[in-house]
Amino acid sequence: MPNYYRSRKVIIIIIALIVLLTLVVGAGVYYYVKSNNTAKRMNEIDTEDYSVKMLSAQSESAAQAVGISVKETTGEQLGDGIYITPIGFPIISYSDKWQGSRLIEIYDELLKNTHGDEINYISKVVVQPGLSSMGTADSIVAGTHSTTQERYMVFFDVPLLAPSSLEYGFSSKQSVIELFGMDEYDTIEQAAKTIAHEYGHHYTIFYFLADEEGALNSQYYQLRNFADFGHPIFFSNQQEYLNNHQWSIFELAAEDYVQLLGSENAKQVKFYMDIYDALRSNDGEDYFATADQTTSNVFPQENLFVPLAEQVESLRDYYFSFIDAQNEMEPLETVDFNLQIKKRSSYGNTYYDITWDNVYSGKDVLYTLVCFDKDYNIFSPIKTLYGNEKPIARVGTVSRVSGSTLLTYSNTVTDEDRYFRLHIVLPDGRIIASEFFFVEF
C-alpha cells in the first residue's frame, strides 16, 4: 500500500480519537457545570420565600402554576396528581385527599428537614392512599425508601475504528420515597415524622450506609457501638427484617436522623394529665389521649433499648459532618433525675407519688413520665409537666369528696410491676431520657 494511503488512514484515526476525546471531556465539563448549577440552585431555593397559589377551577390547560416563589422560580403542576418540584423530582399522588396544591405541602415539609446536596438525588416521592402490603399484624408500614442502580448506555459511532461503534455505560442511583396511608391524614403535620424518617433513609444511605460493608466500616457503627449490641442488625429476608425492624442499623440510623436533623413538625408533642388531675378536672379525656409513633415525647424513637440519639456522644456532629451546615449545640452531660416513688392512701384507696428532680428547669422544658411493662413495651404516658412545675405524678387510685359524694379515679398501672422513664424535651427541641426506673407494686 502506498505511504500516502497509510498516512491518510493514520491521520483519520488520529482525528477520530481527538473527536472522541473531545466528546468525553465535553461530557465531563457538562456534568461538572450541571452539578455546580444544581448546588447553586439549591442554595437559592433554601433562602426563597414560597407562596402557594391554589389551582383555580379553570380548565387544566388554563390552570395557574403552583409553588411560585417571589423570585419566579416555579414547580410545574401536571394535573392534580403530579407536581414537578423546583429541584426536578416529581411528587406523584394516588390519593384523592392529596392532590393539586397539597403536593406542594409535602415538598415544603420535605425541605424543612435539614439537608445538603443529597437532596438532588431524590428520584421521586409517591403518595399512596392505603396501607402498605409489607405490614404485619403487629406493625404498620407508614413509608418506604428504596434505592436502585440504573444504568444508561451511550453510543459513539466513529468510522475507521475497531469496533466501529463505542458503547459507554453511565450509572445513576434512583432514590424513591413512598408514603402510605395518606388518606388517614388531614394535615401535613400528621405525615411529617414519616416524611422525615424516609428522608433519613435517603440521607444515611447516601452518605454512610450504602451497603453492609460500608455500614460496618462507618464511624456510625463505632459511635452507636453496634459491636456490643448482642443483637443482629442485618437481616437476609423481608420477613426477618420486619420481625426485627427496630434493630436494623438502617432503621436506627433513620430514627437518629429524625431526632438530629428532622423538621420541627416531625417532633411533635402531646400533653397528658395523671389520675390526680383528671379527677379534679372531671375530664379524663386528656389522660386517655392516644399516644402513637408520631408523639415524640412518648415515642422519641422506635427502639427504646438503646440510648436516644442526643445521648450518643459525637453522633450529632457526625450527622452534620456531611453537609454545609454547622452543629451549633453544645454536648449534653449525663445527669441523674433521681426518680423516686412513695406509697400513699386516701379514703381506703392506694396511690403512689412518683417524683424527680427538675435538672433542666424553666417553663420551656417539657417533662413526660412514661410507663412501660416488664418487657419494656410502652404501657401508657402518665403525665406531662413543664420544668417550672412541681415534679410529681400519681398512679393507682385517688379519691376526693364532692358534696356528699366520694369520687374516685384510677388506672391499671399498678396492677403489675412496671418500669418508668422521663422523656425530656429541651428548649432547643432536643429530646433526652432518664434511666429506666423499676417499681414492684
Q: What report would you give on this structure?
A:
With 441 residues, the protein is an alpha+beta fold. The chain has three domains: 1-31; 62-228, no CATH class; 269-439, Immunoglobulins (Immunoglobulin-like). It has helices at residues 3-47, 102-112, 188-207, 212-216, 219-223, 238-243, 249-261, 275-281, 315-320; strands at 76-77, 82-84, 90-93, 122-127, 143-157, 165-179, 340-346, 349-355, 366-372, 378-386, 392-402, 405-410, 418-425, 431-433, 437-439. Helix 2 (102-112) packs across helix 3 and helix 3 (188-207) packs across helix 7 (249-261). The longest helix is centred in the first third of the chain and has 45 residues, at 3-47. The radius of gyration is 28 Å and the shape is elongated. The protein starts with a helix and ends with a strand.
Tertiary shape? elongated
Q: How many domains, in number, for the residues?
A: 3
Assigned CATH architecture of the largest domain:
Sandwich
Residue fraction in strands: 15-25%
What's the helix-strand series? HEEEHEEEHHHHHHHEEEEEEEEE
Structural class: alpha+beta
- The CATH superfamily of the largest domain bears the name Immunoglobulins
CATH topology of the largest domain, anyone?
Immunoglobulin-like
Q: Mind telling me the C-alpha Rg? A: 28 Å
E-strand count: 15
Name the strands of the widest sheet in spatial order.
1-2-3-4-6-5
What's the N-to-C terminus distance? Answer: 104 Å
Largest sheet features: 6 strands, mixed
Summed up, the helix count is 9
Instruction: Specify the CATH class of the largest domain.
Output: Mainly Beta
Mean pLDDT across all amino acids: 82
Helix content: 25-40%
Low-confidence stretches: 41-73
